[in-house]
Amino acid sequence: MTSDTPGGARSRGLLSRLRRARSSPRSKARRRLGAAVRLLAALTLAGGAYTVFAPGLQAQDTPQLTTAAQEGKALFDTSCVTCHGRNAQGIEGRGPSLIGVGSASVEFQVGTGRMPLPRQEAQAERKPPVFNDDEIRQLAQYVQELGGGPQLPEGENLHQGADVAEGGRLFRLNCSSCHSFGGGGGALSSGKFAPNLRPANDRQIYAAMLTGPQNMPVFGDNQLRPDQKADIIAYVQETLAKDRDPGGLNLGRLGPSTEGVAIFLVGIVALVFASLWIAGKS
Ligand code: HEC
Ligand code: HEC
């Protein structure tokens, strides 16, 4: 019993210490939990206030598009994403980025039926367009609003009042090396070719010069001023496309080699007959 009392006191002391020890971590945990809840509430409040007071911040991810561009995006998302990517940023090995190519390039590529490309080939070819004029304008607007770039002037006729003769001079200087003197086109290296210019309308000729598709060089406004572009369009449309041949017989418009062959054949035949005639006389 003697050892009971102090033992009892010690055990009671121990008990109360234990209780204190047990209760203190519990209250600490409760305090920590309270702090966490309060922090969460504060964060939620701050986040809520942020979204309420800063609604424009979303615009950085998805730029605000005009109605036409939104319609264009819808068309793009069904017909072009597979090769050009979600936001036209391009897909390695499938299609290039369209950021900065401008509405002129889209109008040219889609308007001449080159895009949407049915399959990978050496060169996209001219085909009947898949989209109508309104849809083409919407697609072009979408790409324009995504990344800017060259744009065409307004209107269908881009060569009103232009100088056809000057256009002919500029054409022979800048275009005939690939498209031939008559604009009939010609072969380039590696299965590529410069196409016949007759099917192209004013806007497409302008766009080709402005954007330089594939192997064609870009003729920016400092290489060919807008009025010089108009002169070239006038020459292509008024002289070449209307099949006017100011020089007489066109010989299939194949250029100087055909002319050489023609004069050679005609000349040889004439000489043979002349010598036969002379021989017959003597
Ligand atoms: C099968 C894949 C494919 C599809 C589908 C496709 N493209 Fe392309 N696109 C290409 C490739 C490859 C090129 C580059 C080679 C070329 O110009 O022929 C290109 C080039 C272009 C260019 C020229 C870019 C420049 O540098 O000027 C434009 C504009 C374009 N595509 C628009 C479109 C639009 C708009 C659509 C949807 C209507 C579309 N493409 C659908 C593969 C594709
Ligand atoms: C280095 C060769 C080269 C020169 C120079 C050149 N082009 Fe081209 N051009 C091409 C090629 C290649 C294409 C086909 C591009 C394609 O299919 O994507 C083309 C396409 C075009 C088209 C599109 C025709 C169609 O199918 O509707 C037009 C229009 C055109 N060129 C006009 C011109 C004019 C105008 C000039 C002179 C200012 C010129 N080109 C100079 C190579 C050339």
UniProtKB/TrEMBL annotation:
Presence of keyword Metal-binding: yes
Low complexity biased stretches: 7-16
EC number: 7.1.1.8
Chief location: membrane
Keywords noted in UniProt: Cell membrane, Electron transport, Heme, Iron, Membrane, Metal-binding, Repeat, Respiratory chain, Translocase, Transmembrane, Transmembrane helix, Transport
UniProt keyword Plastid, yes or no: no
Bilayer-spanning residue ranges: 260-279
Annotated region described as Disordered, given as residue ranges: 1-30
Compartment annotation: Cell membrane
Domain Cytochrome c: 67-147, 162-240
Record membrane topology: Multi-pass membrane protein
Enzyme class: translocase
Catalytic reactions of this protein: a quinol + 2 Fe(III)-[cytochrome c](out) = a quinone + 2 Fe(II)-[cytochrome c](out) + 2 H(+)(out)
A Pfam family recorded for this sequence: Cytochrome_CBB3
Ranges of compositional bias, category Basic residues: 17-30
Assembly behavior: The cytochrome bc1 complex is composed of a cytochrome b (QcrB), the Rieske iron-sulfur protein (QcrA) and a diheme cytochrome c (QcrC) subunit.
UniProt protein name: Cytochrome bc1 complex cytochrome c subunit
Species of origin: Plantactinospora sonchi
Lineage of origin: Bacteria, Bacillati, Actinomycetota, Actinomycetes, Micromonosporales
